[in-house]
Amino acid sequence: MPPETDPDPRKIIHIDMDAFYASVEQRDDPSLRGRPIAVGGSRERGVVAAASYEARAYGVRSAMPSVTARRRCPDIVFVKPRFEVYRAVSEEIRAIFAAHTAIIEPVALDEAYLDVTENLQGLPSATAVARAIRAEILERTGLVASAGVSYNKFLAKVASDHRKPDALFVIPPAMGPAFVETLAIGRFHGVGPVTEARMRALGIETGRDLRERSLEELTAHFGSAAPYYHAVARGMDARPVRAHRVRKSIGAETTFGDDTADRSVLAERLQPMIDRVWQASVAKGVRGRTVTLKLKLSDFALMTRARSLAEPVGDRAGLERLALALLDEALPLRRSARLIGLSLSGLSSNNLGDPVQLGLGI
């Protein structure tokens, strides 16, 4: 059935953080703001893992050799990646998603699809959900996300990239097929550089050109990928958003009404987090070997401290001892904290010690 006549189209959002790694580094280090930076590599060797928009203006891209990046942008600053921080920020962003839908398909630390055909907040439209999520991400992390809203995954992905950075773009069902017709073939998600070159050699430059080719012709040239190209050229994509429901940790956090760097206050505010994590552990019949403390400072910088044990934490008192020890490791703070969190990972069943997979309570 053509998407424009589908009586009950899905509502899909694609969220893509803008220059995620580089933006985290610029957020946490004010001296990097407004400057061209590359995360990863060095001035002499290695490759760029991510580039700020200031660096992209010079043609610097991810996976580019560092020497090429420096040649294109002599003033570029190379920053060592901090993947533990990026993962912590990603988990915080996914918690925002979970407040709106249980159907979340993470693609990477900085990217995810959400099916909000039914949203948990009762907002009137997928666009309203996307707008709320972008605002919450900015408020809680200080980072900017772009969002695409449409009736399938392909068009939601295209939409999120259409006007980046800091964009919200919507492709409704009535607009989808016509929008795809004008799309350059290189902007089709799933068409990489090699396939793009092959398509251009066949005279396929746009979505309109692709739509004019029969499934049989596409199959002759592109094999098993042909049905996908044939469908998306018509604005169609039947792939569902596949929720990842494996829980790998139990966590709790709280944002303060007033920032503080005082150890006694932080220790007091940590107690309810210890209670919540331990109670969840008991309720689910699991124990964990790794305790992680998270602190978000007043400038939104994240600090994490973790400790792994040979055996799972045995009781609430043991969890408290570890949590307070991690807090002491983090002190003194260079700025006051606005959030504290605690998580337990490396989960195993309480009785047998076997690894378990838990459904996310979202």
TrEMBL record:
GO molecular-function term, one example from the UniProt record: magnesium ion binding
PROSITE patterns, A to Z: UMUC (PS50173)
Record-linked Pfam families: IMS, IMS_C
Keywords: Cytoplasm, DNA damage, DNA repair, DNA replication, DNA-binding, DNA-directed DNA polymerase, Magnesium, Metal-binding, Mutator protein, Nucleotidyltransferase, Transferase
UmuC domain segment(s): 12-192
Localization, UniProt: Cytoplasm
GO-annotated cellular components: cytosol
UniProt cofactor(s): Mg(2+)
Enzyme Commission (EC) number: 2.7.7.7
GO biological process: DNA repair; DNA-templated DNA replication; error-prone translesion synthesis; SOS response
Catalytic residues as annotated in Swiss-Prot or TrEMBL: E111
Enzyme class: transferase
Main location per the UniProt record: cytoplasm
Reaction it catalyzes: DNA(n) + a 2'-deoxyribonucleoside 5'-triphosphate = DNA(n+1) + diphosphate
Function of the protein: Poorly processive, error-prone DNA polymerase involved in untargeted mutagenesis. Copies undamaged DNA at stalled replication forks, which arise in vivo from mismatched or misaligned primer ends. These misaligned primers can be extended by PolIV. Exhibits no 3'-5' exonuclease (proofreading) activity. May be involved in translesional synthesis, in conjunction with the beta clamp from PolIII.
Quaternary structure and interacting proteins, as annotated: Monomer.
Name under which the protein is recorded: DNA polymerase IV
Species whose genome carries this gene: Methylobacterium radiodurans
